[in-house]
Amino acid sequence: MTSAATKSQYYPGQSWFFQRRAKKSKLAAVRQRDGDDCWYCGNVMRFGGIPNTRKYATLEHLQPLSKGGTSAMENLALCHKSCNGHLKDFERAHKEKMQAGMRARI
């Protein structure tokens, strides 16, 4: 009884499933709070389609986890995948200066 349907079924206890669900709900909550625009560049993000494209929505930790930040709602913002890559793991103050410079160019 090892058919293709049996192999692809969900098995309770797969932690990645719950982590993905939690991330999606957090992304939806931040989107409801902040809207559909990227925190960094201010352009509209893509919420559907292929996840690994440049304009796809990701969660940005304003104070990086590596520098003492948390995954609390007040530390999260929506960013394009490419914008998130530009922000790297800089401190929050530096990211805000980068944001101001980016918005001034637009």
UniProtKB/TrEMBL annotation:
It comes from the Bacteria. SMART domains: HNHc. Keywords: Endonuclease, Hydrolase, Nuclease. It holds the Pfam family HNH. Signal peptide: none annotated. InterPro entries: HNH (IPR002711), HNH_nuc (IPR003615). CDD domains: HNHc. Residues 25-85 form the HNH nuclease domain. One of its GO terms (molecular function) is endonuclease activity. Transmembrane segments: none annotated. This is HNH endonuclease.
